[in-house]
Amino acid sequence: MKKITIIGAGRVGETSAQILAEQELCGEVVLIDIREDAPQGVALDIYQTAPFFDFDTIVTGSNDPAAMQDSELVVITAGVARKPGMSRSDVLHTNITILDAILDDVMRYAPQCMLLLVSNPVDILTYHAWKRTGWDRSRILGQAGVLDSSRMAAFIAMETGFSAQDITTIVLGGHGDTMVPLPRFCTINGIPVSHFIDDESMQLIIDRTRSGGAEILALRKNSSAYDAPGASVAIMVDAICHNRRRILPTVAILDGEYGEVDLAMGVPCVLSRSGIEKIIEMPLNESEQQLFSDSSAAVRADIERL
C-alpha cells in the first residue's frame, strides 16, 4: 500500500505504527490524534529508528484529519481505555461518540479505504461503523481474535514448554468474557493440544485467555495492553497488503454465517487485498455452538444499548 493512517497516537497506535514502518508494509504511515503535537512527536520518534531497523517508510503525524487523504487503509485505535475493574462494554458510549466523529472524517477524506477497528468494545464499534458508513462488509473489519488467539497460544507455550511458534489456536465470538476459545482445533505442530494438556489444565488456559486483557491491565495498573494488540494489527495489515489470503480470526459482519445476521462477531476470515474475502464456517459441535450463541447474545445486548 502507498498510505495507511492510524487514528489514535496512544500506545496501541504507536506500537502499530512502529511495526508497520519496520516491516515496510506501506510507503507512508500517518498518525492522527486530537492531542496537540502528540502524533507529531510519536511519528518523529518512530522515524528516528529507521537507521537502526533499515526501513524507508515515511512516518508523519498530524492533528488535522485531512492528513488521511487517499489512505487505502485506516486503523482506528482512538478512544478511552478501560481502567482496572471495568469491562470493555463500560466504555461503549464514550467511544461510540468518538467513533462517529472519526467516521465522518474518514468518509470525507478516504471514502475508498478499508477500516480496521481496534478500539473497544470492538465488536460493537465494528458493527456501528458498518451501519454508519453503509459500506460493503468486506471493507470493515475488527481486530480481536488474532490477539485472543495469540494469548491462548502463549499460555499453552507456558504450560507445555514447547515453542510458541509451533502452536496454532483459534478463538471465536465477542471480544470479552464470552469469547469462545476452541481447544478442539488447537494444535502443536499439527498434533492436537489434548495430547499434551489435560482437560482441567486446558480449562484454566481458556479462563485465562478470556481475562487476558484484564490480567495485563491489573498488573500494569496505569495502562492496558499495547504490545500484543499492536502486533496483532500488523499481522492483519500484512495479510491485506501482501494479498496473502491468510485465515485469521477477525471481527466481521455476519449475514447468515453461524446462524447469525446483522451482527459483528469474531470468526475465521480469509484476509486479502480486498479485505475480508470470505468467512470460514467451522463445524462446531453442540457445546461450541451454544457458547458461540451465548457470546452472540452478549454482543447483541450491547448493540441494543446504542
Topology at a glance:
Elements: E1 3-7, H1 11-22, E2 28-32, H2 38-47, H3 50-53, E3 58-62, E4 73-76, H4 92-109, E5 114-117, H5 122-133, E6 140-142, H6 145-160, E7 167-168, E8 171-172, E9 180-181, E10 187-188, E11 191-192, H7 199-210, H8 212-220, H9 227-241, E12 246-255, E13 261-272, E14 275-279, H10 286-303
Parallel strand pairs: 1-2, 1-4, 2-3, 4-5, 5-6
Antiparallel strand pairs: 7-10, 8-9, 10-11, 12-13, 13-14
Explained architecture:
This protein has 306 residues and is α/β, with parallel strands linked by helices. The chain folds into two domains: 3-142, Rossmann fold (3-Layer(aba) Sandwich); 145-303, L-2-Hydroxyisocaproate Dehydrogenase, Chain A, domain 2 (Alpha-Beta Complex). The protein has helices at 11-22, 38-47, 50-53, 92-109, 122-133, 145-160, 199-210, 212-220, 227-241, 286-303; strands at residues 3-7, 28-32, 58-62, 73-76, 114-117, 140-142, 167-168, 171-172, 180-181, 187-188, 191-192, 246-255, 261-272, 275-279. Strands 3-2-1-4-5-6 form a six-stranded parallel sheet, with helices on both faces. Strands 7-10-11 form a three-stranded antiparallel sheet, covered by helices on one side. β8 (171-172) and β9 (180-181) form a beta hairpin. It starts with a strand and ends with a helix. The relative contact order is 0.14. The mean pLDDT is 96.
Rough outline: globular
N-end to C-end Cα span: 34 Å
Stretches where pLDDT is under 50 for at least 5 consecutive residues are none
How many beta-strand elements? 14
CATH top level class name of the largest domain: Alpha Beta
The radius of gyration over CA amounts to 19 Å
Mean pLDDT: 96
State the strand order across the main sheet.
3-2-1-4-5-6
